[in-house]
Amino acid sequence: MTTDLPPWMRRAFSPARLAPYLAACGGDPATAERLYWWNSEVSAAFLGPLHCLEVTLRNALHQQLHSRFGRADWWTAAPLNAVGRRLVGEAEAKFLRRSPVRQITSDDIVAQLSFGFWVSLLSNSRGSSYDRHLWVPTLHRAFPHYSGRRALLHDNFESMRLLRNRIMHYEPIHHRDLLADHTKLYRLLNYVDAVAAKEVAAMDRVPTVLRQRADACAGRRHPRF
């Protein structure tokens, strides 16, 4: 079976990038091409819900820490570990590079901090005491609909962070159990804000794209971003 994908795709996206799609389709270039575009379509569909999950988590944790430490720039008082302090410093430096003439605010830092930073606040990694100093006294309140272990919550959010990173780096996600990922995303969003989860779900097209995978890969429909 030929492995010749369209020349423009090989030129634009590189054979190395396209190789996993060919492998997943048994070397069939037509199916591999369609799988590539479906992977792009489902990745684009996931971006909206992942955006909402990240921002909702960020604001919920920020509100609790603001209340706990009595200041909007709570990171100056919170017992962050070395990684957390570094990430805050990098966020400040990045903002100042972009807007050197404007005075930096706490909201600027909150918006600049990465998904990884917020997820890390739910961990209890070596060199930190987040469980005792952050989770127990305050951060558990950011999840009014959750009553399980912090470690499990952290692991679930971390899996969503990794999914987001794969999507943002245009990596294949078609091999994942995307229905399980989608279910987990809304379970986590519900833990923080059930109303937000309901409103986001009403705009979510991931279920439709998942149902259309077979038709897209068989050429019966054309994927759309």
Classify the helix fraction into a percent range: 55-70%
What's the β-strand tally? 0
Helices and strands: which structural class? mainly alpha
Question: Helix count?
Answer: 12
Cα distance spanning the termini: 29 Å
pLDDT averaged residue by residue: 95
Radius of gyration: 21 Å
- Poorly predicted runs are none
Total separate domains: 1
Principal-axes shape call: elongated
What's the SSE pattern? Answer: HHHHHHHHHHHH
Largest sheet: none
Strand residue percentage: under 5%
Provide a descriptive summary of the structure in words.
The protein has one domain (46-218). α8 packs across α9. It is built from twelve helices and no strands. The chain is mostly helical. The protein is elongated and about 60 Å long. Helix content is 66%, strand content 0%.
Quick structural summary:
It comes from Plantactinospora solaniradicis. The protein has 225 residues and is mostly helical.
